[in-house]
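Worked Example 4.2. Consider the chain below.
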Amino acid sequence: MNMKPYIVYADDDSDDQEIFKDLVHTIEGPISTVIFNEGASLLQFLDSIETNDKLPNVVVLDINMPGANGFFTLERIRSNTRFRELPVVIYTTSSDAADKNKSFQLGATEFIPKPIFKNEFDSFKSRLLKYIHD
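Applying the procedure from the previous section yields the following structure tokens:
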């Protein structure tokens, strides 16, 4: 059974969640978005998925969240052998090189600063599409 592609996103900022949902809605094709306010709930969600064919196409994480922040969540995802191949994108307001380096050291697939300008939104959307249509 082919599942509708979906993205799992964790960010504690409700404005950023709305912007993300709006961005995903501009992508052609049926794509679902599952949104969490922090990493612990996202980890519980992933752990509850019984078969690998039901895993999301991509996980998108903000770094700065209370509790289980993006780094902790990424580290936990990568520590589970079931999720080692799951694309995980760090999507953050941080442009700090140390945050970028730490993201890749922990196993991030990509590090993408949150877009501000329209052309940046288009670039982010095309980067997301490669995980949806891969």
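Residues 118-132 form the longest helix (15 residues). The chain is about 40% helix and 15% strand. Compare this with Example 4.1 before moving on.
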